What does this fold into?
Amino acid sequence: MKAFKIFLGIVVAVAAASCSNGDVESRITKLEGRVAALEGKGGITRANPTAQPVAVNNTPAAPAEKPDGPLPTINFSEELHDFGTIKDGDVVEHVFSFTNDGEAPLVITDAKATCGCTVPEWPREPIPVGGSGEIKVRFNSKGKPGVQNKTVTLTSNTWPTTQRVRIKANVVKEGQ
It folds into this structure.
């Protein structure tokens, strides 16, 4: 599993550097889904129950098991938005609405996209129990021909600690 995460990190780094190959973006999205599925099912912790989470870039690692006590729950009205066909160079935005259906205030600490062409904006203040918020995702299609699948990964005080929303679009050159 550790080798898989290293491999995934290399793939993400290469894709982030080029950020123009739709096939690579699609593969990254699939790999992120696999990692999320493994994390949600215990992944590493079942194979090696004594393994400790590792911190990366001074970011605290996620706990290996669900913390005790009340937790927030983020509930999106939708997790995927399809812009359909757009023109190369269009900048499009979508707002993902959510509610905190948990038992504690929700704090989103980070939001990262799979590519620099996709920029998320998220609330920095805590969302109270029963409260709602929005994640705005802006996608710049300039130089991104073909089908694009972009993922925004949110880090918060929920369990599991990451959630994902996705956008997709078919980018065509002017006149097509």
Q: What stands out?
A: The chain has one domain: 2-172.
